[in-house]
Structure formats: structure tokens, C-alpha cells
């Protein structure tokens, strides 16, 4: 018969299909699902055999041999975590007629019940020992405390503790560690305080460690210092476990100085110096407190002392490399891992994958993942999440599909990663599938997943779906509100965005810098300076003037509202600047046509050690185009490719085509489009078509228009532009043909709209309307200005009102 493998092959074997036990509070005890009318099979364990031997009559069994051997077996099973087997031995003993009053190993047996984490069975053993009168034994009651905590039944543990007629240090320490393991950190510290202050008992190492860990979990620096004082007073400062616990507590509370003091006061002792755990806790603490250089120095010092790093050390070192973005150091640690022979450790592999991804070397990370066994869910989550965050959304989706085929349903972290990938790739159909999967797995109730769905639909432009999901969220936190406001902002639904911002504050949710960045982008879109200043004042009151994200948004917002001077003031007053800061001020200056100052700031950016990126060169090339600086534009384009090794994207080619076209180099602009390594879009052809109108090139205009209409035949803007070209050249028949085609396709031009802010009042104008209360005065001024420019030599092609009427028809 097939048997179940136990920890010792020389012991007995139990049948694999043997049913689990159910221990009742009455004696004798029976197996679950076994009829009470069935005669129990009496048996006895014999060292000379490998299984229980049935007996014909219970009177044949040697009582002492049964008790001694079985008690020893229960101890061994419990120590090796074979809890079901330990309980099974006890039940067999009772079936064999063993007198329960002679059993002296109830604490071990109760520990087995706790190891199963089965509340129902745990209460059965409690009732059993209660009935036979063993609750007077303090060791038994202490074991019950531990059992209930392992089952997560804090209330039952407290009741047992309160009813104890006698308590020893084990009782109190069990309560301290039990509350900590149950994540009731304040309860753990309260018991610690009662034990010491009111009962005069001293916690042991386990109690002190649990109390220190509780302080670390709630970041209670004051209580942690009190426990540190208790440890010193009782001469426990040399205990290696307590030293590491103290260091971890101080590090998690952000008190690096005291953590260093504890470390330095003990590391000189030979017995403690070689303890790898203490070094690991220090290195990890330095990394978590962003003391990266100190973490690096300590890691090197550890190696110089000859202390062999373990897997935890190397994981901490790899996290350090990820934070430093130091690929060279990461590769050195990778070689150390290979030399140590622990490259197959799952934690090590996961940390290596994250390090390579964050150091912009995803190929190596994927290579490690594909060489691994791929059977660890944490590793799958890490590689999918890092692929999504590392601008490899297609890879993230591919890995996610492979995971689904291999394991089935994902966790919420994986769903968040693939939702992000769908958003960046604008894959609405795939995003909808992930939405359905989230509903099916129940992850839709996770408010992080719900917020990600709101954000995804907002990026798709489907604000109705985003609103529906948002309204169904049980917990609408700041992340969810930011996702909704950002969606409104990105889709230019200004009124809804501002209304959501007000509703959020009415619900008691305070905005953060991300929220304000969204509001500032709305201000920039509206070009309303007063609204921008209101947001700026709000930021000042909140104390966010030094926030980099906020300042970057303010630079862009003021520039788009026409106040370039304030943009420069904000930039100059920034204590910290990142890549976006420099790009924002360069773009702002280019937008306002201050090309010379833009070039100065570009040089300052390089001197500050910032490497220009694609966004930087887009701003530079666009400014050169509008300023007619052909030589500088060509120089920047060449520098982008040759010096900075950046591959030009469509927007860079569009700027260059616009630059050459405006300067009259239409042939070169056309050749540049045809030589592009990427597919040209309608915008780049549209830029060249506009240049054809400026320089009256009818032949090239027709060629360019053919390219445009193959990409987008329904774009009325390009049809109107082509009609205007023919009109400029006096081709009335061609104009009529184009306009006839527009009408046949049912196209209609959106009327032009503009607005201006005067004395904090916004005035809106639509082409051809006369709604404004000062419209007669406005048109009179326009007529006057038209006469002035005619005197200056400008001859308009059509009367102003006639032109506006024609455009309004479309």
C-alpha cells in the first residue's frame, strides 16, 4: 500500500488516505466520519515494526511501553512540524485504553493543535483538558495561550489569560509575542508595560524582541527608547538578537544615529562582530533611510572583516544598487552571488531582476527570469510590474498571458501592472478584458485596482466608464480622486475637473502635489492667470513651495498663461531641479520666442550634469522652427543623433520639416519625410502642406495632400487648407471642387474659439458670433486695424466679414 513519507524512515508509516482526526471533549475519541457503533481497532506501536499492529484484545497491550514510546513520538512529530501525526498518535493511545490522567505531554500536544491553525479543533482540545482537570497546570494553560494566538483567536487567548489563577513569566511573554504576531502592536506594548510596572516581572528575550518589533511597526520611538533602557538596566545589551532588534527598531523609526550607536557599541565585541544578521539589519536600515553611501561603505567593511554575506545581505546590497542606479556595482554583486553558489535562491533572483530593470538593463533581468524555474508568484509579480514600469508594456502583457496560462488567476499587484500597460499602449479592448478579469477574481473590490481602472479609462478618453467605476468604489481615497481629476484634465473637461476637486475637499480628502499638478495643467490649458495664482497661493499655504513636481507644473502653467517672468522666478528659486524642471523652463522660453535665453538655459542644463532627452530636443527644435533659426535647428538635430545617441521620433522629424518648410527648403523637407525610419503621420504632412501654402508650391501641395488623405480622408482642416492654397493661387475651379468634396462627405469645420482675461474677467469669442455685449465696438476696432495694416502695405485677399462667413459654412 502507498504510504505517506515521515521525517524518520525507521519510524512507522501511516496510510496516505487515512482520514483527518476530530478530537471531541469526551472520552473515548473517534475518527471523523467513523460510525460510533463501529468497534475501534485497538493497536499498539512497536519499535520492531514499521506500523501499528492490531490486537485482538485490549487486555494484551503493555501499558507502560505504549505510554513511553508514544509520548516520545508525539514530541518528535511536534518538533518537526508533523502536527496531524502527533495528534493521531494521541488518539491511538486513547483507543488502546491509555489512561488520560497519566499523559504528561499536553503542552506538546496543544502545540500541535496550534500548528494546524484550526479553531474548531483547538476548542476541542481545550474542552478535553478542561474536562479531565488539567487546567490547573500552568504549563498547559500557557500552551493554550500560544495555541489561540496561532489560530488568530485573540479574544479566546485573553479570556484564558484573565482566568488564570497563576501566571508566570512564560504566560506574560506568550501574551506579548501573541499580540505582536496578531498585529495588535499596542496590545503587545500594553502587556509589556503591565508585566514590568505592575507585576514586577522581567520579560525574556522573546518578550523584549516582540515589544521592540511592535515599536518598529508603529514607529513609536519613545516607547522603543524605554524598552532600550530596560534592556540596558537588565544587562541584556550583549544579546545578539536584542541588538539586531534594537537596530531595526531605531532604523524603522528613522533614528539612524541611535541605530549606529547600538551597532558601534557591540560590533567591537568578537562574539557579536561575526553575526551576519546584525550587519544585514544595519545595511537594510541605511537603505530604507536613504543613507545609500553609508550602506555601501558598511557592505564593503563587512567584506573586509571577512564576514561571509548570506542571501539577506546580498538582497539588501542589490536593493542598494537599485536605489543608486549603479549597474556596475550590481554586476559586481551578481558575480559575488555566482561565486557563492546561491544564484538559484528565489529571493536573490527576484532582487537581481529588479536591480537590472531599475538600472535600465531589462534584457539581463528577463534573462535571469527565463533561466529560473518561474514557479514563484513574487518573482512573476516583480518581472511583470518592472516591465510595465520600465517602458516595456508589451513584455508585461506577454508575461501576464504566460502567467495566466500556467497558474490561472493573478493577484491585484499583477492586475495593476497590466492595467498600466494597457493605459500606456491605449489598448482599450485589452483593458476591458482585464477589467472583466478583475470582476471575476473579486479584485475589483481592491480600491487600488479600482483607482487604476479609473485612470485607465480616463487615458482612453472614456470618462463615462471612469465615472461609473469611481462612483462604485467603497473607499474613495486620494489616489482614486487624483485618477478622476487627471482623467478630466487629460480630456479637457475643465468644469468637471474643477468640480471634482471641490467635491474631494468637501469629503475631507486633502489634495497632494499630484492633485495640484493636475489643477495647474487645467490652468495652463485655460490660460487663465488668476486661476493659476489661486492654485499657487494654495500651494504656498500648504507648504509645498519646495516640491519639485509642483514647481515644474507652476513653470509650465505660468508660461502658458503668458507670464514667462514668473516661470523664470520659480525656476531660479528652486533648491532642487530634475530633468523635467530644465525641460519645463526651456520649453517655456521657446514658447515665448525667447530663443537666445533658451540656448543659455540649455547650456546651463548641461553644466548641471543633466543629460538632454527627447523632450528637451523637441522644445529646442520647435523654438528654432518658429524663430527661423535653420542652422541652429540642424545643429541640434545632428547633436541629438551623434552626440547623445538619441533616436529621433516623429515629433522631432515634424519640427525639422516645419523648420525647413518655413525657410522655403520644401524639397529638403519632403526628402526628409521620405527618408524617415518611422512611418510619417498626418501631422508631419500637414506641416509641409502649410509650408506649401506659404511659398505657393501648388505641385508639391497636391502630392502632400494625397499622402494626407490616404491617412485621414475625413480631416476637414487639411481640406480647408488645400482649398486656401488653390484660392491663393487664383484656382477658382479647384477651390470649388475641394469645397464640393467637403460638402459631399458631410464634413463641418469646428468654429474657432478664443478667450482673453482682462481684470480677472474671462471673455470668450467664437468665430462669426455677435453674442458679446461689446461686439459692435470690437468689430469697429478690427475694421480700424484692417485699414491701418492696408496703409502699411498689406492687401487682404477677402473682406474680413466675407472670410468669416465662408469659414462658418464649414
TrEMBL record:
<protein>
    <recommendedName>
        <fullName>Pentatricopeptide repeat-containing protein</fullName>
    </recommendedName>
</protein>
<dbReference type="Pfam" id="PF20431">
    <property type="entry name" value="E_motif"/>
</dbReference>
<feature type="repeat" description="PPR">
    <location>
        <begin position="275"/>
        <end position="309"/>
    </location>
</feature>
<dbReference type="InterPro" id="IPR046960">
    <property type="entry name" value="PPR_At4g14850-like_plant"/>
</dbReference>
<dbReference type="Pfam" id="PF13041">
    <property type="entry name" value="PPR_2"/>
</dbReference>
<feature type="repeat" description="PPR">
    <location>
        <begin position="578"/>
        <end position="612"/>
    </location>
</feature>
<dbReference type="InterPro" id="IPR046848">
    <property type="entry name" value="E_motif"/>
</dbReference>
<feature type="repeat" description="PPR">
    <location>
        <begin position="137"/>
        <end position="171"/>
    </location>
</feature>
<keyword id="KW-0677">Repeat</keyword>
<feature type="repeat" description="PPR">
    <location>
        <begin position="613"/>
        <end position="643"/>
    </location>
</feature>
<feature type="repeat" description="PPR">
    <location>
        <begin position="477"/>
        <end position="511"/>
    </location>
</feature>
<dbReference type="InterPro" id="IPR002885">
    <property type="entry name" value="PPR_rpt"/>
</dbReference>
<dbReference type="InterPro" id="IPR011990">
    <property type="entry name" value="TPR-like_helical_dom_sf"/>
</dbReference>
<dbReference type="Pfam" id="PF01535">
    <property type="entry name" value="PPR"/>
</dbReference>
Amino acid at each position: 500500500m502507498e504510504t505517506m513519507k515521515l521525517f524518520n524512515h525507521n519510524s512507522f508509516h501511516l496510510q496516505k488516505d487515512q482520514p483527518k482526526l476530530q478530537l471531541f471533549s469526551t472520552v473515548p475519541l473517534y475518527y471523523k466520519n467513523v460510525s460510533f457503533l463501529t468497534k475501534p481497532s485497538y493497536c499498539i506501536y512497536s519499535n520492531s515494526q514499521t506500523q501499528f499492529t492490531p490486537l485482538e484484545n485490549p487486555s494484551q497491550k503493555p501499558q507502560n511501553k505504549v505510554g513511553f514510546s508514544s509520548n516520545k513520538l508525539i514530541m518528535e512529530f511536534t518538533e518537526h512540524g508533523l502536527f496531524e501525526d502527533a495528534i493521531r498518535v494521541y488518539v491511538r493511545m486513547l483507543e488502546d485504553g491509555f489512561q488520560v490522567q497519566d499523559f504528561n505531554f499536553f503542552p506538546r500536544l496543544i502545540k500541535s493543535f496550534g500548528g494546524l491553525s484550526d479553531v474548531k479543533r483547538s476548542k476541542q482540545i481545550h474542552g478535553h483538558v478542561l474536562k479531565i482537570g488539567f487546567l490547573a497546570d500552568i504549563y498547559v494553560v500557557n500552551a493554550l495561550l500560544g495555541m489561540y494566538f496561532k489560530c488568530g483567536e485573540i479574544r479566546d487567548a485573553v479570556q484564558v489569560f484573565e482566568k488564570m489563577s497563576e501566571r508566570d513569566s512564560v504566560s506574560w511573554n506568550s501574551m506579548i509575542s501573541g499580540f505582536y504576531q496578531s498585529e495588535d502592536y499596542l496590545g503587545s506594548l500594553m502587556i509589556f508595560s503591565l508585566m514590568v510596572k505592575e507585576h514586577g516581572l522581567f520579560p525574556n528575550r522573546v518578550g523584549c524582541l516582540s515589544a521592540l518589533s511592535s515599536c518598529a511597526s508603529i514607529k513609536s520611538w519613545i516607547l522603543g527608547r524605554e524598552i532600550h533602557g530596560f534592556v540596558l538596566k537588565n544587562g541584556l545589551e550583549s544579546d545578539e538578537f536584542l541588538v539586531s532588534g534594537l537596530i531595526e527598531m531605531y532604523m524603522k523609526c528613522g533614528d539612524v544615529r541611535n541605530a549606529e550607536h547600538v551597532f558601534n557599541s557591540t560590533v567591537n565585541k568578537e562574539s557579536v562582530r561575526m553575526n551576519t544578521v546584525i550587519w544585514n539589519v544595519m545595511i537594510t536600515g541605511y537603505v530604507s533611510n536613504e543613507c545609500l553611501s553609508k550602506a555601501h561603505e558598511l557592505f564593503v567593511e563587512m567584506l573586509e572583516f571577512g564576514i561571509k554575506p548570506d542571501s539577506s545581505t546580498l538582497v539588501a546590497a542589490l536593493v542598494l544598487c537599485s536605489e543608486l542606479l549603479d549597474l556596475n556595482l550590481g554586476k559586481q554583486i551578481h558575480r559575488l552571488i555566482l561565486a557563492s553558489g546561491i544564484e538559484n535562491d528565489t529571493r536573490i533572483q527576484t532582487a537581481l531582476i529588479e536591480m537590472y530593470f531599475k538600472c535600465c538593463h531589462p534584457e539581463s533581468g528577463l534573462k535571469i527570469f527565463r533561466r529560473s524555474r518561474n514557479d514563484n508568484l513574487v518573482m512573476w509579480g516583480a518581472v511583470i510590474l518592472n516591465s510595465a514600469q520600465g517602458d516595456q508594456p508589451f513584455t508585461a502583457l506577454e508575461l501576464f498571458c504566460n502567467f495566466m496560462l500556467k497558474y490561472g488567476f493573478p493577484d491585484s499587484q499583477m492586475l495593476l501592472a497590466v492595467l498600466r500597460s494597457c493605459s500606456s499602449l491605449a489598448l482599450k479592448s485589452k483593458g476591458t478584458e482585464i477589467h472583466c478579469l478583475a470582476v471575476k477574481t473579486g479584485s475589483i473590490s481592491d480600491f487600488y485596482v479600482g483607482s487604476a481602472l479609473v485612470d485607465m479609462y480616463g487615458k482612453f478618453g472614456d470618462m463615462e466608464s471612469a465615472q461609473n467605476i469611481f462612483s462604485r468604489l467603497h473607499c474613495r481615497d486620494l489616489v482614486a480622486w487624483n485618477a478622476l481629476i487627471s482623467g478630466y484634465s487629460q480630456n479637457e473637461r475643465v468644469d468637471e475637473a474643477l468640480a471634482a476637486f471641490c467635491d474631494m475637499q468637501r469629503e475631507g480628502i486633502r489634495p497632494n502635489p499630484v492633485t495640484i499638478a493636475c489643477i495647474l495643467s487645467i490652468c495652463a490649458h485655460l490660460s487663465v492667470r488668476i486661476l493659476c495664482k489661486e492654485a499657487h497661493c494654495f500651494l504656498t499655504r500648504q507648504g509645498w513651495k519646495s516640491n519639485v513636481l509642483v514647481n515644474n507644473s507652476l513653470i509650465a502653467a505660468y508660461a502658458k498663461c503668458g507670464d514667462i517672468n514668473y516661470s523664470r522666478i520659480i525656476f531660479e528659486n528652486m533648491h532642487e531641479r530634475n530633468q523635467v524642471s530644465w525641460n519645463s523652463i526651456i520649453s517655456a522660453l521657446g514658447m515665448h520666442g525667447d530663443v537666445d535665453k533658451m540656448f543659455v538655459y540649455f547650456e546651463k542644463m548641461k553644466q548641471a550634469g543633466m543629460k538632454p532627452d527627447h523632450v528637451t530636443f523637441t522644445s529646442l527644435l520647435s523654438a528654432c522652427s518658429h524663430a527661423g533659426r535653420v542652422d541652429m535647428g540642424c545643429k541640434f538635430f545632428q547633436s541629438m543623433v551623434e552626440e547623445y545617441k538619441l533616436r529621433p521620433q516623429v515629433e522631432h522629424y515634424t519640427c525639422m520639416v516645419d523648420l525647413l518648410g518655413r525657410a522655403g527648403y520644401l524639397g529638403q523637407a519632403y526628402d526628409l519625410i521620405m527618408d524617415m525610419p518611422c512611418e510619417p503621420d498626418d501631422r508631419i504632412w500637414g506641416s509641409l502642406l502649410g509650408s506649401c501654402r506659404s511659398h505657393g508650391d501648388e505641385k508639391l501641395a497636391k502630392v502632400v495632400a494625397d499622402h494626407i488623405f490616404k491617412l485621414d480622408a475625413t480631416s476637414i482642416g487639411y481640406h480647408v487648407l488645400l482649398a486656401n492654397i488653390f484660392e491663393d493661387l487664383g484656382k477658382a475651379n479647384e477651390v470649388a471642387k475641394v469645397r464640393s468634396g467637403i460638402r459631399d462627405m458631410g464634413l463641418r469645420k469646428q468654429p474657432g474659439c478664443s478667450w482673453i482675461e482682462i481684470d480677472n474677467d474671462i471673455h470668450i469669442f467664437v468665430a462669426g458670433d455677435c453674442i458679446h455685449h461689446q461686439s459692435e465696438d470690437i468689430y469697429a476696432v478690427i475694421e480700424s486695424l484692417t485699414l491701418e495694416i492696408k496703409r502699411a502695405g498689406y492687401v487682404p485677399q477677402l473682406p474680413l466679414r466675407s472670410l468669416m462667413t465662408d469659414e462658418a459654412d464649414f
